[in-house]
């Protein structure tokens, strides 16, 4: 029983689910005593900085009718036999047909339909419960009879009765039941900063109207984005995948009213055209005979194809087990009053009976578009993939970099593309918008920005570092706190690298930066016979060499890899060094070794070994508003999830915390795994009995205490990444509570003050300088007009956008007990973009968040390879968050756990 309880404690359930008794008791105590915290309102506006006039991709929306109500109906679609409709995408055509067929019964109302379960009208429908029968021409089944034969081949006129009955119609039953009534005035309230319970709902309705407007134009819809079927928007990414450029659009309540935010957006689609061409590209083979058909079957399932010559559109259900010339079916033919049957292969049927020439299908499987039990087969060369079908698998590194490169747009180009789409989308003609009295301005919204002055930086020997345009360098400068690289060795997993030259150059470059790099003990070359072995074995073998030849444990290992990205040795190597042995390690994959490359490597090595490359001048003369006065700890928190195709890879939560107060440039990290796709961090506070807490926060607090001269933090500033507005309340009430509990657990009387800030990169607001082709300058901050009408938020571009259009970071202050002024807070955020030890540039988001991201990614690699080597069937089937026991991450070794290993 005890061991079972222990297990439950390891994996507390996610917040909404209470399993076991303990959490319940805690909840009972918590409920009455804890009033819910609300988001803090805006405290005014920043004043510092050089004013700059900007425009943004928000378009003003005006609203005439605020007296009306939206009526929300719940849509229930069923087939004739009362089974629910399972086919995705069937809804829109059914509802459109319903509107045409029953216009008078529905009081000629326009619908806003979300394609799923919700439908909205302006004003009520005549009845409360509306039930209708709708007959729709079923596009998906084309002209294929479901008798297992490929296509209709009765001679003309031989089956009159059958020819007259079109078998491509489907009958649906539609029930619309009243769900809610939403006042349009909620939108007007929101614009005055008085959000009511209906605001989000009302804005969602007008979002749905826009989506529907795009759907009617035949666009592919992906959440808030739409994509036109226009080949000039497609870019090749390789592997049968294309990037498709489209647009994001969403309504936002802002200080200056309602605005429509439109931005360029990209999704991945399957390359349209012959199925065989797609498979050859996707599997990177030279001809059809080399295709792996088991893999092909998984890739093709549910994709839509057009079958020539009839051009019927169907969905792929599977492939035949045998080649086309051996796949048999029973062909029925009418002969007078009798029906003759004949066993014939799909190949012979198409070539002989239909007179269709087949060049390469004979020895390849057929495509099945029928039911698994009642197949309907077609030769593969008659099948063409339809355009605008999403490709949802994870992209390869090459595909991803190609996508990034091809979807870049300079600010001016982006502006003209956005103006153009607004003209073309012709929202003024949308009847629902007209009925709501909504019109959308054609011009970009003007906003006032300010450019903050870059913070001053210090290098070694008391020298100042001068930054220009968010960048600086260490030419002729020494690092402010240089570590020494001693008791070290090189391990080489790459056949191509000249180790002697690399070590010589590293020692020389280190000397110029003030880092004393001693000669390494040794350089270990991988045994060539191990190159084909599994990564874990290669790492074990290399460590055996190191152990036998070195006099004692090394303090540092430089590891040379062959591939720059995705080396399969990387994860096992890091795990071995950081978790098992506690050795600081730096991996390199040098292609061009020059001074800049070596400096960048040394910056990382110095930070990992406890040095500091540069620091803010205000740290050396403690002069930061509020932060320097009393012991202050800064936290960065992030959760990283598996890529879209992997539903069972654990999510990884990381918390980094500042150390050695009054510094704000030094950090350490703690990392844990948690249930897949779970955004809330569940291990901030994990009590074990009454005297231990295994959570992430306790580690941070103890480290701060020991590294800051036995001082407890009296102020804690939390930067949280990666949560959407709908989750702000959870961060503010659940996560913050856990952090407070962790503090109380160490000392019941201790009450630090908290400031909680969420950083979002994943939004669609961009800024432009009118008439200037360049990006906004680094340090640009905007806290007016397009910010939230009531909540406390601002946008900051702290970095110099070198390519494409700068994406500002959107900071939301949810809670502030420390009591910063808007200027102090904006300056702090700006300064924290200049303390990132890995680079000599200001970065786009505060350093602690970047570090949390890096730490999660690096430690996540520790278990990646184990999952691949074990059969993944043990993980099969569980995708719901919080339901499946999660593989625990190995903990970092004592010797490295407080280092900046993630740098």
From TrEMBL:
Organism the protein comes from? Urochloa decumbens
Which ranges does the record mark as transmembrane?
none
Q: Where is the composition biased (Basic and acidic residues)?
A: 1-10, 22-41
One short Pfam name that applies is ArgoMid
Described by its record, this protein's role is as follows: Probably involved in the RNA silencing pathway. May bind to short RNAs such as microRNAs (miRNAs) or short interfering RNAs (siRNAs), and represses the translation of mRNAs which are complementary to them.
Where does the record place the PAZ domain? Answer: 274-387
List all Polar residues biased stretches.
141-152
Query: To which protein family does this belong?
Result: Belongs to the argonaute family. Ago subfamily.
List this protein's GO terms for biological process.
regulatory ncRNA-mediated gene silencing
Q: Where is the signal peptide?
A: none
Gene3D superfamilies cross-referenced by the UniProt entry:
3.40.50.2300, paz domain, Ribonuclease H-like superfamily/Ribonuclease H
Region (Disordered) location: 1-47, 140-166
Give all residue intervals belonging to the Piwi domain: 556-864
Keyword list, A-Z:
RNA-mediated gene silencing
Q: What is this protein called?
A: Argonaute 4
PANTHER family according to UniProt = EUKARYOTIC TRANSLATION INITIATION FACTOR 2C
């Amino acid at each position: 029983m005890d061991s079972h309880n222990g297990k439950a404690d390891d994996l507390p359930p996610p917040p909404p689910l209470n399993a076991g008794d303990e959490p319940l008791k805690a909840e009972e105590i918590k409920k009455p005593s804890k009033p819910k915290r609300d988001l803090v309102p805006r405290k005014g506006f920043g004043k510092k900085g050089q004013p700059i006039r900007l425009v943004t991709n928000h378009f003003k929306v005006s609203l005439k009718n605020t007296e009306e109500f939206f009526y929300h109906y719940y849509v229930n679609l069923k087939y004739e036999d009362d089974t629910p409709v399972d086919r995705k995408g069937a809804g829109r055509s059914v509802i459109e047909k319903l509107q045409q067929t029953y216009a008078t019964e529905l009081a000629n109302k326009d619908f806003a339909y979300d394609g799923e379960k919700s439908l909205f009208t302006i004003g009520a429908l005549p009845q409360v419960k509306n039930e209708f029968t709708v007959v729709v021409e079923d596009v998906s089944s084309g002209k294929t009879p479901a008798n297992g034969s490929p296509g209709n081949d009765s001679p003309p006129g031989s089956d009159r009765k059958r020819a007259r009955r079109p078998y491509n119609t489907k009958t649906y039953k539609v029930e619309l039941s009243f769900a809610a009534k939403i006042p349009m005035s909620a939108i007007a309230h929101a614009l005055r900063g008085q959000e009511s319970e209906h605001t989000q709902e009302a804005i969602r309705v007008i979002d749905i109207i826009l989506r529907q407007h795009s759907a009617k134009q035949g666009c592919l819809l992906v959440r808030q984005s739409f994509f036109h079927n226009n080949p000039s928007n497609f870019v090749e990414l390789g592997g049968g995948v294309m990037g498709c450029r489209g647009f994001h659009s969403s309504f936002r309540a802002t200080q200056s009213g309602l605005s429509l935010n439109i931005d360029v957006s990209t999704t991945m689609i399957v390359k349209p055209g012959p199925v065989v061409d797609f498979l050859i590209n996707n599997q990177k083979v030279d001809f059809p005979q080399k295709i792996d058909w088991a893999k092909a079957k998984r890739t093709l399932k549910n994709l839509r194809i057009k079958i020539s010559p009839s051009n019927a559109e169907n969905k792929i259900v599977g492939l035949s087990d045998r080649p086309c010339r051996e796949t048999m079916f029973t062909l029925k033919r009418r002969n007078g009053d009798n029906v003759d049957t004949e066993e014939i292969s799909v190949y012979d049927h198409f070539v002989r009976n239909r007179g269709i020439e087949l060049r390469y299908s004979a020895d390849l499987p057929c495509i099945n578009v029928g039911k698994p039990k009642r197949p309907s087969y077609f030769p593969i060369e008659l099948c063409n993939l339809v355009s605008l079908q999403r490709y949802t698998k994870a992209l390869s590194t090459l595909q991803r970099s190609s996508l990034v490169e091809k979807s870049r747009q300079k600010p001016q180009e982006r502006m003209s593309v956005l103006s153009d789409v607004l003209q073309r989308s012709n929202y003024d003609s949308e009847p629902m918008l007209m009925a709501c009295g909504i019109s959308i301005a054609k011009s970009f919204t003007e906003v006032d920005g300010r450019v903050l002055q870059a913070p001053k930086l210090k290098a070694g020997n008391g020298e100042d570092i001068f930054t220009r345009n968010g960048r600086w360098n260490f030419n002729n400068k020494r690092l402010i706190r240089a570590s020494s690289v001693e008791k070290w060795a090189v391990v080489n997993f790459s056949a191509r690298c000249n180790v002697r030259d690399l070590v010589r150059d590293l020692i020389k470059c280190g000397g110029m930066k003030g880092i004393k790099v001693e000669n390494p003990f040794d350089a270990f070359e991988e045994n060539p016979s191990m190159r084909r072995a599994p990564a874990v074995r290669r790492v074990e073998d290399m460590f055996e060499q190191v152990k036998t030849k070195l006099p004692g444990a090394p303090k540092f290992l430089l590891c040379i890899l062959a591939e720059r990205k995705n080396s399969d040795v990387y994860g096992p190597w890091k795990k071995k060094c950081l978790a098992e042995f506690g050795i600081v390690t730096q991996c390199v994959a040098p292609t061009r070794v020059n001074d800049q490359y070596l400096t960048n490597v040394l910056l990382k090595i110095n930070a990992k070994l406890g040095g500091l490359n540069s620091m803010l001048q205000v740290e050396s003369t403690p002069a930061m508003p509020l932060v320097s006065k009393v012991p202050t700890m800064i936290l960065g928190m992030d959760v990283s999830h598996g890529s879209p195709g992997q539903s069972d890879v654990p999510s990884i939560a990381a918390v980094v915390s500042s150390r050695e107060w009054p510094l704000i440039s030094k950090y350490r990290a703690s990392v844990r795994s948690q249930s897949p796709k779970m955004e809330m961090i569940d291990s901030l506070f994990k009590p074990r009995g009454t005297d231990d807490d295994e959570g992430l926060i306790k580690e941070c607090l103890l480290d701060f205490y020991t590294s800051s001269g036995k001082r407890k933090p009296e102020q804690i500033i939390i930067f949280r990444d990666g949560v959407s507005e709908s989750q702000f309340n959870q961060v503010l009430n659940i996560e913050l509570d856990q952090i407070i509990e962790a503090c109380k657990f160490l000392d019941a009387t201790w009450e630090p003050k908290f400031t909680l800030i969420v950083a979002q990169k994943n939004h669609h607001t961009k800024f432009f300088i009118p008439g200037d082709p360049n990006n906004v300058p680094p340090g640009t901050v905007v806290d007016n007009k397009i910010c939230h009408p009531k909540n406390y938020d601002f946008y900051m571009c702290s970095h110099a956008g070198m390519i494409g259009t700068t994406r500002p970071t959107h900071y939301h202050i949810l809670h502030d007990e420390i009591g910063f002024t808007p200027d102090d807070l904006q300056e702090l955020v700006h300064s924290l973009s200049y303390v990132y030890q890995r680079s000599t540039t200001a970065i786009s988001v505060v350093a602690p968040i970047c570090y949390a991201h890096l730490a999660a990614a690096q430690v996540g690699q520790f278990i990646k390879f184990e999952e691949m080597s074990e059969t993944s069937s043990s993980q099969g089937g569980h995708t719901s968050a919080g339901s499946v026991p999660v593989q625990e991450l190995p903990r970092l070794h004592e010797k490295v756990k407080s280092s900046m290993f993630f740098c």
